[in-house]
Amino acid sequence: MTLAFRWLFRLLIAGLVLGASALTILYWFASRSLPDYGEAFTVEGLDGPVEIVRDNANVPHIFASSDADVFFAQGFVHAQDRMWQMLLTRRAVQGRLSELFGARALRTDDLMRRLDLYGLARASVDVQDAETKAALEAYSAGVNAWFAEVNEGARGRGAPEFWLFEPVIAPWQPADSIAVIKGMALQLQAHVTEEVLRARVSRTLPNERLSDILPDAPGSGVAALPEYASLFPDLKSPDLPSQNTRYAFGIVPERGMAGASNAWAASPARSAAGGTLLAGDPHLGLSAPSIWYLARLELKSGGVIGGSFPGLPGIVVGRSDHVGWSLTVSYADDLDIFIEKLNPDNSQEVLTPGGYVPIETRPSIINVAGEAPVTATLRWSPNGPILPGTHFDLETITPPGHVAALAWTALTANDTSMTALLNLNRSQNVTEAIAATEGFIAPSLNLVMADREDIALKTVGALPRRAARHQTQGRMPAPGWLPENLWQGRLGYSANPEFVAPTGGILGNTNNKTIDRPFPLHVSHDWGDTQRVQRWQRLMQNREVHTRESFIEAQLDTVSVTARVLLPLVARDLWAGDDPAEAGTPERRRQDALDLLGAWNGEMNEHMPEPLIYATWMRALQEQLIADELGPALTAEFTHPEPIFIERVYRDVDGAAVWCDILQSAPIETCADIARRALDTALIWIDETYGGQLEALRWGDAHEARHDHAVLGEAPVLRWLVNIRQSTSGGDNTLMRGKTKGTDPDPFANIHAASYRGVYDFADPDSSVFIIPTGQSGHPLSRHYDDLGELWRRGEYIPMTLDPDLARAAAVGVTVLTPRER
Known about the structure:
This protein is an alpha+beta fold. The protein is built from 24 helices and 29 strands. The protein has an eleven-stranded mixed β-sheet with strand order 1-29-2-3-6-7-8-9-17-18-20. Strand 10 (335-343) and strand 11 (346-352) form a beta hairpin. The longest helix has 30 residues, at 2-31. The chain starts with a helix and ends with a strand.
């Protein structure tokens, strides 16, 4: 026995030693790709020396004698810190994810090949102006200079992810940068899923009920649309459950997960310090690392600092000494689905107003890791790429003998968005900024700006010109062979909404409706927000003058106007109702929940129980309201409570209270009955999921921010190292937005929130601040991988200065790039 024990002990020790040795070797190999920020490099492609000062948050401040050298250095630092992220983005837009990840990425690759975003990006290089071409060439040379260092300098393959995949890296090209913009346009596109869903629901509900569950933004006054079935009477099949699964790596947003954002500005007359103020926080899907990379570029036109995209030269949101800007998604309707009629005698032709014309076709081979290659036959009609019914649930709304094609402003080979972005970086005032972005094509965005004297908002991006007789006004798929439905070019830039120096001294956008013009100059029928804007208006008007601190306070506000409106409507009969129930009974638990909600001010604070009770209740309530009318397939598409719908029902707007009656039951249920039943269902779910006393619940336990690594985040052990988790406040409809996942399990996980926050004060520009939710590095072993995350979670910021001395004062390193002699 003693001998056996001794040998078991020796084997255990040997196992531990071997395990420790393996981990040490693994760490050593992975850490080889950590850059030394104090290193000097001699590289090809520079005209003169470059100094890169990294401040204590690892924000690079780039100084050079020419703009081309600045962009070279930006490409170099992007590749140093975000090499894997850049290459994954490029591969996604190219439709080449399956080469690494196998069949699970095949559906994403199939869509990207059919849209041909990368081909359009390549074609768009030639339409950029000379300065932009030079910037793209210099940026690419900087990226490739780091790739060369990785290949020649034994730098751990450049990123730890490349120990799992073949480290074959093609050089970066100018088209790759333009492709990053194309990919972002797809991530911010919300209309394709809305068009399909509206068509599906219209087959089930009459128009008056359709406007309940898919309501227009208040005040839009849209006339009734034809029933979708009347446009395509051959569409006989019942609505099917969604066959779609998530697109790999989030390249295509799910419904409700397209971009959002807040941005607002105050003129000197509304500023306590007498200078303009600007606050902006773009809302995007959370990830590790963040989509943003903070940087400062010292251009000939002056310094510019803010958030950049790895893969793009320039600053996307930020400020210079003269002008600051932020972006929100405009929700402009720049996309239409066309149902094309195939020639019954030749399925390779589609009907047009002039007769049948051939479909353009081209094969595309998709290589799939571990499996045989797949050949996709790409097809285009005159209206755009033809998509199989497996994409976006198109099969549910496409009649036999027809196919669906996509018309979208981003599908252009003459895309000058890159030139517009770099011209914006060089702008010296609001007027120049508006003129600079005329060539911006897609995505359509609201550009909120401030210079030292004025503030402005301009919607940028191309808007299609539609005929006033368009059958569906672009809200649902339409017959692609009728001339009244076809696009007639683009609207002029002057038609894009524009607000300069408003008399009230404050302007902003929370993805709300910006303008109320009749179709076809409408901009959009579907907007991203009808709720946050109400809270923003109150906070802006509560003060005669604002400060940087009041703008920060508004940016971090967690009060839900939605909760304040809905609870008095939904709970009014319940609050007035029952006698006190015995302890331990479901009735008593319901009363305790109502007592908590009755004293709540609507603040979605992570430490409070009320937000969790409220959110669970509204989720259960909407499901019980719509399940019998829509059926399981369509009910599953409404993953988040629709505030206007619930309000319409409980105010009985145009008879909307009819939703409260359960069609399959004999009694006629009242809205109070459904509210009580939904609350009981919600409390059962809370008890099964969290247990304990209601008072002990924490919203932050359910509303945990999830910054997941796109690849390693799914690995059983590595996910604990690479994924970042944070308890957070806010919710779907608060200014400090934390969009919930909406689906089981963990329906309230925070997966879409402020991906960047910046507040700029032009009375004292160097007092401006910014933050991102993770860190600057994409390397999980770097201390800069998540060092900004806790500041972001607590609502704190770091200084945003263009003062070189302040940047150098606490620098973590200074990198010097020297041109190699030719």
